[in-house]
């Protein structure tokens, strides 16, 4: 296997909350090759967003601590000082998030926000403006010149998300963290923006960590998928294999809960039970309380292990199968 | 923008009208008769009545009000009962003192509050944050007059560096004037600095937790830019409200501070005028305070519009 662009080993995040210590990531490992798209799927509260952000050393909340190793092009991000980390992020990393209204600075014009990111790499104001205009055109934003002078509140939600993506792509990063980038959008706008994002990603040869709770979004653009539950990766596999033959009971339950077809023959399927309280996790598999196949073995730790070439799962049943 | 400001100006006029009615009625609802207050204790009822007529107090209330407001619009606030000077002239004499102290105090307050608030938020939970918190608590809890007395004791009595009180206008020379103004301005300024610091700290923390800050960090924007450009400008909007109110309170005059430092300002004048039931003087001073407060609010609104494009529309 060639050296991955980005490799996360045994990532642990923790912070204190009223209910006790919360660990949104409990030993998460994954890797992304250059140009590859890895999906990170899970229900809300599974820790996927905190994990993805912590993987580039963004702490949320700020009091959170991060453990593990984060190799970017062979360099451990955790060993970089603040300035080196900032420089690396500026050149190589970008992030798009779910809520574009909150992700753009309300008191800065679109143009200022775009050009200042471009200028982190040097170059003149005129060059930065040119790059911003070019990118806004690529994002199919009408009248890009006048948009540069606009403030975020003057744009529609879909338009803001395009600007946010432009903001991420303007420095031609090699890794994009996409944290539910289309969740807040209408279905039609979502499809359009996903297609656009994928097109530009291919053009730039950019790798992507795509966080979503939506399996159809994941299925459309990811090469591989990691399924997360209660701070752990439960299963990891190439997208098609995972969707066709899920091996972990949680993945199966997740796939079964996706509404299909148009027949209205009963209530929408849902995973029974509630996601576990992250401050009070049972020993062993975190999914055991909701798992239809739970057995005494499940109270033992279930590490993520190879079950087939390119496939991993954290369940003794998956291994036996 | 023009429409926004015009709307605010209309509100301002309405507030001033309401306030003038209220001031006029409240002053007259105060117990005590100014005519009696001005006479010796053995004055006859006839003499008192003559005095009432001389002061115009025998007229119906609406007529008294119209006379007062009619004058006020043209800048004539009537004559003081006690000093028989024009109220406008008396205020014109005192106001520069209060304005001078207030401006210096506000500058001191902001000069302390901005770095302290920003640094407290930047290093939340750190030693600096705790230090500023303790200092701010002391600043909020310690009465201004007490701080004033201590500073007079130290700088005027023990060290002899500064005069213990009195006022010198700027025309008397910057050095001399500042030597007189600095102790009261610091006493007032630090008190307001404490409140503004806490306000700025909490709005900075609020903004720093927002998604656009995380995005800026992910894109490698330098932390200094994030603090001062991304966070500070957004956090300034609620902080300006606190600063604006502080300035309003400062301009109303600080009675105790003016007494301690022997400053001939508005606070003392208001205090004396209330004690002597000097209706025109009380009315004039309070009306000026209200006007200033409303004008400051108006200025704040205009500033918000400059700072926050969402308000401009």
From TrEMBL, chain A:
<dbReference type="InterPro" id="IPR003439">
    <property type="entry name" value="ABC_transporter-like_ATP-bd"/>
</dbReference>
<dbReference type="Pfam" id="PF00005">
    <property type="entry name" value="ABC_tran"/>
</dbReference>
<protein>
    <submittedName>
        <fullName>ABC transporter ATP-binding protein</fullName>
    </submittedName>
</protein>
<dbReference type="InterPro" id="IPR050388">
    <property type="entry name" value="ABC_Ni/Peptide_Import"/>
</dbReference>
<feature type="domain" description="ABC transporter">
    <location>
        <begin position="6"/>
        <end position="255"/>
    </location>
</feature>
<dbReference type="GO" id="GO:0005524">
    <property type="term" value="F:ATP binding"/>
</dbReference>
<keyword id="KW-0547">Nucleotide-binding</keyword>
<dbReference type="InterPro" id="IPR003593">
    <property type="entry name" value="AAA+_ATPase"/>
</dbReference>
<comment type="similarity">
    <text>Belongs to the ABC transporter superfamily.</text>
</comment>
<dbReference type="InterPro" id="IPR017871">
    <property type="entry name" value="ABC_transporter-like_CS"/>
</dbReference>
<keyword id="KW-0813">Transport</keyword>
<keyword id="KW-0067">ATP-binding</keyword>
<keyword id="KW-0472">Membrane</keyword>
<dbReference type="Pfam" id="PF08352">
    <property type="entry name" value="oligo_HPY"/>
</dbReference>
<dbReference type="InterPro" id="IPR013563">
    <property type="entry name" value="Oligopep_ABC_C"/>
</dbReference>
<keyword id="KW-1003">Cell membrane</keyword>
Automatic annotation (TrEMBL), chain B:
<feature type="transmembrane region" description="Helical">
    <location>
        <begin position="174"/>
        <end position="194"/>
    </location>
</feature>
<keyword id="KW-0812">Transmembrane</keyword>
<feature type="transmembrane region" description="Helical">
    <location>
        <begin position="131"/>
        <end position="162"/>
    </location>
</feature>
<dbReference type="Pfam" id="PF00528">
    <property type="entry name" value="BPD_transp_1"/>
</dbReference>
<feature type="transmembrane region" description="Helical">
    <location>
        <begin position="99"/>
        <end position="119"/>
    </location>
</feature>
<dbReference type="Pfam" id="PF19300">
    <property type="entry name" value="BPD_transp_1_N"/>
</dbReference>
<dbReference type="InterPro" id="IPR045621">
    <property type="entry name" value="BPD_transp_1_N"/>
</dbReference>
<comment type="similarity">
    <text>Belongs to the binding-protein-dependent transport system permease family.</text>
</comment>
<feature type="domain" description="ABC transmembrane type-1">
    <location>
        <begin position="95"/>
        <end position="304"/>
    </location>
</feature>
<protein>
    <submittedName>
        <fullName>ABC transporter permease</fullName>
    </submittedName>
</protein>
<keyword id="KW-1133">Transmembrane helix</keyword>
<keyword id="KW-1003">Cell membrane</keyword>
<keyword id="KW-0472">Membrane</keyword>
<feature type="transmembrane region" description="Helical">
    <location>
        <begin position="235"/>
        <end position="261"/>
    </location>
</feature>
<keyword id="KW-0813">Transport</keyword>
<dbReference type="InterPro" id="IPR000515">
    <property type="entry name" value="MetI-like"/>
</dbReference>
<feature type="transmembrane region" description="Helical">
    <location>
        <begin position="281"/>
        <end position="307"/>
    </location>
</feature>
